[in-house]
Design brief:
This protein is of the alpha/beta class. It is 34% helix and 21% strand. The structure holds 2-acetamido-2-deoxy-beta-D-glucopyranose (4 copies). One 2-acetamido-2-deoxy-beta-D-glucopyranose binds next to helix 3.
């Protein structure tokens, strides 16, 4: 005779434990300013104009951003108050032993960290809660508010410096215990980024090292590849999907599910249903953000805390599809951008692409990140 069946009430109880999540959605206003590039570039009005800009940004040996700077006021102060949409989660038993601030990348919103499809099978947040961390995942300001997104200037307002300023402002509120809806105060606040979110995390710690106690840069190296710009098949977001129809020109999104596949999912390492769900969830990026990625990552980073870089070995945007074409690997070489880390480690995830959280290797990735924090924070 086999195992006796569990009483239904106990089964229900176990399911409730597994699903119990102490999470809440909050909106955090931030008043920020940044030195943005004053670009003369016109807003692209159709998909061919978008493609021209992609080809101009991707041209090797030419700094298109520098060419497009206004000759008079090259950099100007942009300021404003923005509402940031976020989800704050605590372990069931109360605040965890550190708070992780999670910054997503291009093509996503904060759901990248806590993907609901297939009953949260691909949830970094759940893995972190299970290891007694609290999490704060937020939407980049460009997509944070439905009311804002129709009015923000996609060339000269929503740029990388302003996004980094919003990450800094959020972190300051969280460290001070003054973010609305987050009552707990944490001795340790750490940061995890993905892709463009890793770039912002790098930039945050380069310019304001006191704001973080440790960083994990996922899907990142300092060798950004034009493969990302071409592979994504970027077009006007409003023409990419009915769901994005109210975005004005200058907000871009992948044309189809294949753009999403090329940039995020490695052959043999993903579930097609998750790829479809990822494309269904895709979110826009502005021309101004793409034009200023390099502006926030130039130079070196004196951050004195611990650093983990973790990237899939088939990553297209940051390894051109193979992180192992050199020894040390491309992600390991990005150690050179850090002048003073207390600890540095680079992990290359075998068989994985850029969208680490949503591939078959996700649990392995989560374990590497959480082991790093357990050891170093
Ligand atoms: C938070 O909002 C998202 C949609 O933006 C929704 O899917 C999710 O269920 C909400 N979470 C909570 C805890 O209310
Ligand atoms: C940006 O440069 C243009 C000239 O190209 C100038 O007219 C404009 O005032 C500058 N923008 C700001 C905000 O200073
Ligand atoms: C989780 O962290 C909190 C805060 O440091 C601590 O009080 C609690 O005992 C930890 N819980 C577990 C299960 O380790
Ligand atoms: C290109 O020019 C911009 C504006 O001057 C500058 O911020 C950026 O660092 C340059 N990019 C590279 C890769 O040198």
């Amino acid at each position: 005779m086999g195992q006796p069946a569990l009483p239904a009430v106990l089964v229900a109880g176990l399911a409730a434990v597994a699903a119990a999540r102490n999470c809440k959605n909050i909106t955090v206003p931030v008043s920020i300013s940044a030195q943005n590039a004053n670009l003369t570039l016109a807003v692209p009005q159709d998909n061919i104009e978008v493609n021209n800009i992609i080809l101009d940004i991707a041209q090797p040996g030419v700094n298109f951003t520098a060419l497009e700077l206004s000759p008079d006021d090259q950099f100007v102060t942009v300021e404003g108050t923005y509402s940031i949409a976020a989800t704050y989660c605590e372990p069931d038993a109360g605040p965890g032993h550190a708070l992780q601030v999670l910054t997503h990348g291009v093509g996503w919103d904060r759901s990248y960290w806590d993907f609901a499809a297939q009953d949260y099978k691909y949830s970094y947040v759940n893995a972190a809660l299970a290891r007694n961390y609290s999490t704060f995942a937020y939407d980049r300001l460009v997509i944070s508010s439905p009311a804002q997104k129709r009015t923000l200037d996609p060339i000269n307002e929503v740029q990388s410096e302003l996004e980094v300023a919003s990450l800094a402002a959020l972190t300051t509120l969280l460290r001070d215990g003054t973010a609305p809806g987050v009552a707990a105060r944490y001795d340790k606040v750490v940061h995890v980024g993905h892709s463009y979110g890793s770039i912002q995390t790098w930039a945050l710690t380069a310019t304001r090292p006191q704001l973080s106690d440790g960083i994990v840069l996922t899907g990142w190296s300092d060798a950004f590849s034009a493969g990302f710009l071409f592979g994504g098949n970027y077009i006007e977001a409003r023409t990419a999907s009915q769901r994005l129809a109210d975005y004005p020109p200058g907000y871009l999104a992948s044309e189809d599910v294949l753009g999403c596949q090329t940039n995020f999912f490695a052959p043999g390492n993903f579930d097609r249903e998750i790829l479809e769900a990822a494309f269904e969830a895709t979110q826009p990026v502005t021309v101004g953000e793409l034009m200023t990625i390099a502006s926030v990552t130039g130079g070196s980073n004196g951050f004195p805390g611990p650093v983990l870089v973790i990237t899939g070995d088939r990553d297209v945007p940051f390894c051109a599809g193979n992180c192992q074409t050199s020894d040390p690997s491309i992600p390991a070489q990005s150690k050179e951008t850090f002048t003073n880390p207390s600890y540095f480690e680079a992990v290359v995830v075998p068989g994985a692409g850029h969208g680490l959280n949503l591939e078959f290797t996700a649990q392995q990735t989560y374990t590497s990140i959480l082991d790093f924090f357990d050891k170093n924070i």
